[in-house]
Automatic annotation (TrEMBL):
Coiled coil (residue ranges): none
UniProt xrefs under CDD domains: USP-like
Domain of life: Bacteria
PANTHER family registered for this protein in UniProt: STRESS RESPONSE PROTEIN NHAX (PTHR46268), UNIVERSAL STRESS PROTEIN UP12 (PTHR46268:SF6)
Originating species: Cellulophaga fucicola
Protein name: Nucleotide-binding universal stress protein, UspA family
Residue ranges of every copy of the UspA domain listed in the record: 51-126
Gene3D superfamilies: HUPs (3.40.50.620)
Pfam families: Usp
Recorded family membership: Belongs to the universal stress protein A family.
Length: 291
């Protein structure tokens, strides 16, 4: 699937009155500008004049003044309200702030945000490093794993790179160690394992090249594209890679499983949610989520 027109036409930012509210509103309004999107600010809680005045003041400080912005106030369970709003308001992208662990330079997703990434019908952007003044996005990493929704995520990554002016896009193919199926015991088996690795890398890179080939050249113009094959646990490996190369944004497929066993035994994106390496953009196929 190749994106046509704007994939993120309506953005929802669910906010609380935290110390980072101003900076999150400034960053979110900036993203809405680059995506040419309508922005809905939603507070699940009571509406007071003091709160209204604070939001109005923050919006006046936003970089771009021509945005289509609405502020909604609703009371109830935060998860239920946000999930329902995403459906009823045809939200394409939900933006949430992630929190920093105390005394550590790591970020984590709170229980509400973690549940929302599983339940909402739209894509989700988790922000860990919003800023008052714009920090250009220079490098984006996107998963290239062999999965049905990967073409959608790669297409989205190109759209995002173009919208944000990011010059570098790296597509990471995570290859499971078990796929090598060679036990290294001596020099001969080591050589065999290396040959198998090269064949797997070639196969994965060829598969990704076919996806990229179908993307219009106009969407790839000015973007340096890199393929990177890595061996290891899915989710954990790409998260580590994004941290090592200091990517500004990591784009991932939405989790396909949400059962209790998947929460007990982490997989794929759960590794990343437990220790965010950078801002995380989770691409969800709206059609699949509604069926």
């Amino acid at each position: 699937m190749v994106y046509k027109n704007r994939p993120f036409k309506t953005i929802l930012f669910g906010f609380a009155f935290s110390p980072k509210l101003k900076i999150n509103i400034l960053e979110t309004s900036r993203i809405a500008h680059f995506f040419n999107a309508k922005l809905i600010l939603l507070h699940v809680g009571s509406k007071t004049q003091e709160k209204e005045d604070k939001i109005t003041t923050f919006l006046r400080e936003a970089e771009y003044k021509d945005l289509d912005i609405e502020v909604h106030w609703k009371e109830g369970d935060p998860i239920d309200i946000i999930v329902n709003t995403c459906k009823t308001s045809s939200i394409d992208l939900l933006i949430l702030g992630a929190l920093q662990k105390e005394n550590r330079y790591k970020f984590y997703v709170g229980s509400i945000a973690r549940k929302l990434t599983r339940k909402v019908c739209c894509s989700v952007l988790l922000l860990i490093k919003p800023s008052v003044a714009r920090v250009p996005c220079k490098s984006i990493v996107v998963n290239g794993l062999d999965a049905p929704d990967t073409p959608l995520s790669i297409n989205a990554a190109f759209y995002i790179a173009d919208a944000l002016g990011a010059p570098q896009l790296t597509i990471v193919e995570e290859i499971l160690q078990k796929d090598i199926q060679v036990t290294v015991q001596d020099d001969k088996s080591l050589k065999k394992a290396n040959i198998v690795k090269e064949r797997l890398k070639h196969r994965e890179e060829q598969r990704v090249r076919e996806i990229v080939k179908d993307i219009p050249d106009s969407c790839k113009q000015g973007i340096k594209i890199k393929n990177q094959s890595i061996f290891g646990k899915r989710g954990y490996s790409i998260g580590h890679y994004a941290a090592v190369v200091r990517a500004d944004l990591l784009v991932m497929n939405a989790p396909s499983k949400t059962g209790i066993l998947d929460r007990i035994f982490p997989h794929d994106i759960e590794y990343i949610l437990s220790d965010l390496p950078t801002d995380l953009f989770i691409i969800r196929n709206r059609f699949d989520s509604e069926n």
